Amino acid sequence: MYRALSNRPIAQDTYEMILTGDMSFAERPGQFVNVKLDGLYLRRPISICDWDEQTMTLVYKVVGRGTRQMAAMRPGQELDLLCGLGNGFDGNAAGAHSLLVGGGVGAPPLYGLAKRLAAQGKKITVVLGFGRAEQAFYQKEFEALGCPVLFATEDGSLGEKGFVTQPMSRVDYDYYFACGPMPMLRAVYAAGKAKNAQGQLSFEERMGCGFGACMGCSCETIAGPKRICVDGPVMKSGEVIL
After folding, report:
1. Is 0.90 surpassed by the pTM of this model?
2. H/E/C letters for each residue in the chain?
3. What is the pLDDT of residues 118-169, one digit of tens each?
């Protein structure tokens, strides 16, 4: 069990929850936890935004009964989590200049990655995409790590009007990390391929179990079907079929 230390709104329908408990499971940014919630049969997968020896940060968007229940939690309440799930980002593959691309709540796991790449002295640029300005978050947190942050919004209320591929086109990167909805990942993949840049993609997917038993979150790769919850959610650009 993990105990909530704080739970606060950070953008429209988006919350940041900090929990305390056993963090020995954490190995790589990009892993996720599966959250058990009262009255709901399936656990909810939430990417880990960041962690240290005593705390873990989750950033989530309120989209249904489960996340509404999480948003109502107060400090001191406990959550039942399955932890250490998934295959995270391999920061050792980062190039001389890495581009981190996040769409909506695909941005949080990239913060934990940026924090660790920055600690290694890596050059990083961050591109974030949202529907509109009031949905945006973590600009100051990324900038505090020394990362320039570029925005794209669908309505043009923050950064460029359009999609993440537009600010991407102006960045001279040689490797990328991306997390977000499938249309965004396809566009980032295509842009990276045109630039002859390799990368890693973290897939968002509904999951039945979260540890590979149900086969409900499979995707196609050049080596055949793989399970996003176990073989992913992070996969290399060279192995996926998009």
Report:
1. yes
2. CEEEEEEEEEECCEEEEEEECCCCCCCCCCCEEEEECCCCCCCEEEEEEEECCCEEEEEEECCCHHHHHHHCCCCCCEEEEEEEECECCCHHHCCCEEEEEEEHHHCHHHHHHHHHHHHCCCEEEEEEEECCHHHCCCHHHHHHCCCCEEEEECCCCCCEECCCHHHHCCCCCCEEEEEECHHHHHHHHHHHHHCCCEEEEEECCCCCCCCCCCCCCEEEECCEEEECCCCCEEEECCCECC
3. 999 999 999 999 999 999 999 999 999 999 999 999 999 999 999 999 999 9
